[in-house]
Structures are given as C-alpha cells and as structure tokens.
C-alpha cells in the first residue's frame, strides 16, 4: 500500500482527484477483509474547529468513493486514544498546526508505521503530510534570524524547526507551496543542511509514494528539492 501526501487546500466543488488512489486502496483492503465499505480513521486537531475540519476532510475524500469515517476530533490539549487507529482500512490525518499534530500523534508513530507496513494506506493532509516524513519540517520562517519564507506560514515558530516524524517517507515535506510561498523555506532548509532533501506539494495535489515510485495526482505540482554541488537542485513533477 501507499503513502498519500496532500498539499492542503479546499476546492469549491471537490472532485476527489487528490484522494482517489487512497480511497481505492482502502476499499481494496476492506474487500480483502470481507468488508463491503472501507473504514477510514480520520484524525483532526484544532481550537474548537476540529470537528468541522474532520467533516471537510470526509466531504473532500468521499467524492472519490464511499467509506465509513471513524473520526477522532479534539483540541490541542487532547490525547489521541489508541482506538483512533484500530480496525481500519485507511488512515487520514488532517491539517492545522503541524507542531501540535506531531506532538499528539508521536505516541502512535510506531503503530502507524506498523499498519502501513501491513498494508493500510496512509493519507496526510497538510500537517498530516509534513509529519509523515522521517525528518518532519514542522514550521518556522527564519534561519539564524534571517527570513527565508513568509512569516504567515511559520506555524507559530520562529526558526525553521525539524523534528522526528512518523517515518513513512525519507525526505521532508512542505505543503501549500505555491499558495503560501513556502518553496523558499524548503530550499533554505536543504541548503543549510537541516534536511537532506524535500518535497513541496501544492494545494489540491497529492504525491503518492508506493512500490511503483512517485506519482502525482490532482491539479498542482510537486516540487523536488535536492542538494547539489552548487547549492540545491529544484525540479517539478505534475499530474
């Protein structure tokens, strides 16, 4: 099964393109287990708006196919129970403040790796995509006090901060890249050696990481940032 990294964003008229492969994989796993409709864990964290965010995620993904959402929605001070990920055919982690998602889900990193290794597809939306990395870029907008990206996308952090993530992909991930102007953050992080390489994902776009390599779905681009002799090398992948 695959890891599906969605760059965030909401469509006025959702077409499900960024979630189609994820829902299809969850449905295939459900069918193999004798379940007619896949059961998908949906995790959302926020300040009083977590339930609404979970509803938006379900609405966006369900356009791609029917599933039963197993929703866990909570505030920043909550504690995600182990049952949030129990007996599911797919896992969908939402967006918001990336450092908060990382901290709340950290106790479950090992279980999430185990489930994905066992064939349960994982989809991360924005923050959920960022923390999927082994080295998660969780926020910040400056390096050594020097601005390298817009402050509004800093996730409440000053210096660019990298922390241990779930470990489902081996390069760091940034989201909302074209829309929030965060490509420069990824470039600066790679050039400074804070991360070994990065993938930046536009809104309404998914990067599917599976046995067949990398595939892009949706309506934007994925920006690949790798270290090079003269600095960094930036290239794009489209759907």
Plain-language structure description:
It contains 7 helices and 15 strands. 48% of the residues are buried. Helix content is 25%, strand content 31%. By secondary structure, it is α/β, with parallel strands linked by helices. It has helices at 20-32, 50-62, 98-105, 109-117, 127-130, 177-180, 183-191; strands at residues 3-6, 39-45, 68-74, 90-93, 122-125, 135-139, 142-143, 146-147, 161-164, 172-175, 198-201, 205-210, 213-218, 221-228, 231-238. The longest helix has 13 residues, at 20-32.
In short:
The chain is of the alpha/beta class and 239 residues long. The chain has helices spanning 20-32, 50-62, 98-105, 109-117, 127-130, 177-180, 183-191; strands at 3-6, 39-45, 68-74, 90-93, 122-125, 135-139, 142-143, 146-147, 161-164, 172-175, 198-201, 205-210, 213-218, 221-228, 231-238.
- Strand content range: 25-35%
CATH topology grouping: Rossmann fold
* Separate helix tally: 7
Find the CATH superfamily.
Answer: Class I glutamine amidotransferase (GATase) domain
Find the count of extended strands (DSSP E, 2+ residues): 15
Shape from CA axes?
Answer: globular
Binned, the helix content reads 25-40%
Strand order of the largest sheet: 3-2-4-5-1-12-13
The helix/strand order is: EHEHEEHHEHEEEEEHHEEEEE
Instruction: State the secondary-structure class.
Output: alpha/beta
**Could you give the distance between the termini?**
20 Å
